[in-house]
Amino acid sequence: MFKKFMASVLMLLGAIEGASGKEKADLVIRGAAIVDVASGKLVEGRAIAVANGEIVAVEDDKAIDRSFQAAQTVDASGQYVIPGLWDMHVHFGGGEALVEENKDLLPIYLAYGVTTVRDCAADISAHVLRWRDEVASGTLVGPSIYTSGPKLEGPKPLWKGTIEVDSPAEVDAALDRLQAMRVDFVKITDNTLRPEIFLYALKAAKARGLRTSAHIPYALTVEQAIAGGLSSVEHGDYLIKAGSTAEAQISRDYADKKLSYAEASDKLVDTFDPTLARTEFRKLARYGLFVTPTQNMGRILAYLDREDHSKDPALALIGPGLRETYNWRVERAAKADAAAVERRHREYELSATLLPLMRDAGITILAGTDAGYLNSFNYPGQGLHDELARFVESGLTPVEALRTSVINGPRFLGRQARYGAIAPGKAADIVLLGANPLTSIAATRDIRAVVRAGTLFDRAALDALLAQARDKAAKSVTEIK
Ligand SMILES: [Zn+2]
Prior knowledge:
alpha/beta, Urease, subunit C, domain 1, TIM Barrel, 2 domains, five-stranded parallel beta sheet, 21 helices, 20 strands, 43% helix, 19% strand, globular, binds zinc ion
């Protein structure tokens, strides 16, 4: 006991500079204008002291100079400081052959100011779980990772790497496995999953204190799924269903196989009523629902017929194997007839109108991209900025858009005490911007430096990460040839 006490005294003394009496900081950022994302206010002329991966003080420059001896100092005058960005829907996947290409995405996220990602399942979970732990222990450079591990699905689904469940006992066994992997939440999709098993999985996960994130089976109403315990809906177009005047009937007809998926979704779009949607969304909000619209993804897929992405500069950052997986959706889109294309446009345009309705109803919106393998031209890192821009285009204010990432992201995972603000006691995940993001959301793209768990990456270091990604992506092309 005494030994322990002495050790803490020595540690405390060690943190204080002998002669100056100043506390040691690894990094001090001076002269910054801090964006208080919660209040939407700007606090100018502040200095931020960082030690051991944590923000330890935020005061005016003089007060910080008096109290801290900094190993490294950054002059951020004229710059704007926000907490690191969270992308709440990404995928690492594409099979064992693409493991390295997926791992190479991690520094790209950092270079775009994304300091945390939520991985929503794919087929290389064991690797992602290992990267999560390596990033946390500081042996791997990248954003913090939260992951669902393999997702739950029904028998023989389209998706690879899932845990197939078709009975309550199988769900229980799957949840045992996921808990043994220490997953951060449970992802469920319904390609072949029976609705009653879906509802059982929600209930069983909730009973174990696990958060769930899912697509909603068409045979259920949205409220049935949310009342069943679902924590977050992935993809905003499911919310069209909640605003349909014929939702219950369409759900029944789909369950009875009287309607195909495409027919059901057409009917839902036709019967959508914004006034009803407002009422229904308020009901859903009372359950504490989170929704990840993945709006930019919806936009890209809906307009593949008329937008050419083959010259996108970001393509050069990702490996050839991952680029190859993009073809799946492109080929599928090319096969669609005029009516299907028209349907996709209509559905996207309607889903884009839902965002302000969700906000007004009190549904918590999450910024998530769906970036990763398969999801064509929705680029890791850059995609998050595209998503925030779509949110503003659809009616959120810039600060509301920022909240969906830096405040709502941590809240979903129960990490709000540690993230979401530039304040003492918060993790030192920080982005320095060249322009004010409260005025224009485009400012989030003007990144001057990123601090990740206390380590500074200035613009030159971030550019070096991107150059390295470009080199690796180009090298693998020749290797494949
Ligand atoms: Zn996804």
